[in-house]
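ASSEMBLY PREDICTION REQUEST
Request ID: AP-0331
Submitted by: J.K., bench scientist
Number of chains: two
Total residues: 1052
Priority: normal
Notes: Please return the full assembly, not individual chains.
Input sequences:
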Amino acid sequence: MERKLLLSLIRNGGGLLEDVASRVNMSIDQARRAVEWLRSKEMIKIEEKVHHKIEILGEGKRAIEQGLPERRLIEILKRLNGEAKLDELSKAFGSTPQEFSAAFGYARSKGWISTSSIEGKVIVKLLKSDQSALEESLLKEISEKGLFFEELSEEDKKVVNGLIKRPNYLMKKPFKIVNISLTELGRKTAEAIKEVKEIDYLTPDLIISGKWKQHRLRSLDVEAVAPTIYPGKKHPVQHFIDEVREAFISLGFEEILGPIIQPAFWNFDALFVPQDHPARDMQDTFYVSKVKEPSIASSRLIEKVSRTHTNGWNTGSKGWGYDWVLDEAKRLVLRTHTTAVTVKYLADHKVSEAKVFSVDKVFRNEKLDPKHLAELHQIEGIMVGKRVTLRDLMGILSEFYKILGLKKVKFWPTYFPYTEPSLQSIVHVEGFGWMELCGMGIFRPEVTLPLGVKNPVLAWGGGLERIIMARLRIDDIRELYENNLGWLRKVPLCL
Amino acid sequence: MPVITLYYNKLKSLIKGELSTKDLIDKIPYLGVTLEEATDDYVKIEYNPNRPDFSTIYGIARSLNGILGFERGAPNYVINEGEVEMIVDESTQHVRPFVVSLVAKEITLNDELIQEIISMQEDLHEGIGRRRRKMSIGIHNFDVLKPPIKYTTVSPEFKFIPLGEKEEMSMREILEKTDVGREYGHIVSHFDKYPLIMDSLDQVLSFPPIINGELTRLTPETKNLLIEITATDLKADEDSLAIIAAALSDIGAKIESVKIRLGNSVKITPDMSLQQMEVDRKLANDLLGLRLNDEEILESLERSRISVASKDGKLTALIPRYRVDILHQVDLVEEIAYGYGFEKLTPTLPEFKKAGKYHDNLKLIGLARDAMIGLGCIEVMNYHLISEKALYEFTKRKPKTIIKVENPKSIEYEFLRDNIFPSLLIVLSKNLHEEYPQRIFEISKVYSKDLRTPNGIREDYHLSVATSHSTANYTEVKSILSSLLLQTFNLSVNTIPTHHPSFTSGRAATIVLAKNNLGIIGEIHPLVLESFKLRNPVSVFEVNLSKIIDIVKQKAS
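STATUS: Completed
Returned structure:
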């Protein structure tokens, strides 16, 4: 506001408060406030004066409309061919004798007419008809603008005073006016601002040259909504996978990887799952058409596993009591659990101590529906050590869940073909209730001894999708892999 | 997994102590079963296949009585020596070799009990019986029979009146015309002669594993039963009989043994004697993380309905015959835990001093993923299994080798992907109404034939990108490709012009690094766009990340 005012003053000069205010499109009050502020900063000085406004009264208005009386007189005289007897002229003029007399007097004092006497009668002659009178232009000016007496030139003042003498023409009305003008400081400041132009954008050139100082950046509507943009983004399932991997790393586990396509040997047989177990059914497991006879393991290991199934071999077990078939073990499956990879790891490394994990894809031959997928992600962790116990397993799981924000856990006994004892963990999920998550247990000796692992192996695993569904509040498991861009773009990663 | 419904009234009548319904429901998970449903009258529980003795309410009650402390040690089953003999013909030996049998006398049946017995039979058929293939059970009204019983094989034309029919049917007809015949016939249909059980008057008891004769149908008036179980596996045979013997005994019947004669050998079934296995105390305490003394171990086993004999410092577990799941001492360790009470086990944290470690390859893949996100692409995750149409037909490609599953439930998910980009095109086709530009990527395994691998199938990680909008073009994806490889792996590649049926002619290239073919890049051919019903142009690249990782690792070494 103040800036606008200063600029106006320096561009258009000082003036009355009202005029300056309207110049800059402010209300009187706004202008008054701005002026006060500027005065406090000593950039403006205020002069309060009493000036007189010239007001036009009735006769004055008439004179403007119809012309000055002396003008009217000489117009008539012109029509009378520039010469007329006095009483003739008076008659033509009309109006009152006083008015005629006044008009006559004004015209004569201006030198517009002359009089002579012929046979005792006064004859009036027109001398000048085209001379403009100062009164006329002034009146016009006064009627168009409001003029203050004090603003007039000396000459004009004389004319106005003359007009004021005429009855009911003009009046001087006293006005207090506030005249604002710039002080030296104000002038200097205004000069500086005047140099500054408003621009929309800062450019490299302006910055480098320093010319930015001469400009002002236009204010923006900072509250306006900006266009939506979509960032690149990790898939929410991958996000959770990475969170789980991180949990394992923080517990000191090493990540392992392995093939998805496994011979039944590693997916089932090495895990002591009998060859007629329902899980090996075509109904539940995907079998992959072979491209060649796979090489599955050393013949020594195959022998050990075979005997373990049949009669327990050296494991101290009774075994399953059936004849184990190699061809069945050579069939290729899409792994139904990552345990296949874990158990091969044990076979390859024969470790006495280890902590490994994986989070990866597994496959079940299911028909897709709101609760079932054919392709899932599974987590798996094992810990091998001389003195590891079932209670340690419970402890690791509790800690693992805690890292994922699941603080309430229960453990119940259950059964898996390749662990004994086995437990099922149930966790409390916010906004969902109790949910079965990971199964766990200690690998049976029928599994570990043929592989050459003598220490107990704690193992646990479970599917990821259910907990992701609970977190993202999804009811239909298939939604996780619909890849609907609207959903992917909007689903929050921070929950 | 098998399910059994337990009515509170009946269950409580079998529990030898006070038990409120609430306590009952709370205790159930500690049997190792899952609570499926709980109403005011009953609970439905799902039990694991290792405990076929849970196929009746009696089996559940036995275990419950144990962990509640109302009964201790192995239950005692008395088998009286019976008179009945079963003669086994040699011809059965290559068809369905094993048979066991028992007679249950003085049984008071009603509809509810008959239902329980049938339910047990069905669950055992599914579980141990592996859908009757491994073993199948025949339950007969004993009083209409005249022993000795014969187990033999006969011609498929042999006729009798099967259960539920009025007229005689030949065995062949039974296999062709009845539901059970059609469902289970495959178990015997390939033999020349079919198994049959008759009595001395040639009255038919059953045509195992298909159907009984109408003659021996059970009614609530039946007082005495004969059970016969034929099998291809001796353990399955004997286990099932033991479970049935225990259940019928608990119902109140008096069990009599049957003599099975095959040639010169005689076997007396059932054998309900306790099985013996040494208790490894150290193993128990080590695995459970406890310090139980002999007294405590003994008590725990007894609460699991297992008796213990102590002699010369050795503990021997005496295990009831209906327990078919105790194969190794670790199974006893679990029984100790059941008896001790799993709810009493508290978690401990083991000591371990090594740091965790990400897999190198996955770390590099993670970097590539981060780069793609930084380049403004959204990650999608698709299935590895895809339809032939989408993988080959729509992309106008002809496969060199197909990798597929033998038994898909839908042809939508039959082929294993050899490339990712067809899945990306499917994703784009499902998102026609979402805002453009659409830039998506996926990192995943793909499958190809490679005889150098142990399985003959190679699994490589691929990364594929698809961009789609009204001015999607080659340059855009090449920028992404170059940026990705340079920023993440410090690699520069060449893109050599090539022909590829999925891409517009003159706008496709092979991605090459030092003579390695790393992948493909280009603008998708309009024919392919039409197949996928896409409306905007699409540009794609796909690289073999596994190869790139190998190159990077080689450079580093």
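REVIEWER COMMENTS: Chain B touches chain A through 92 residues (CB under 8 Å).
SIGN-OFF: pending second reviewer
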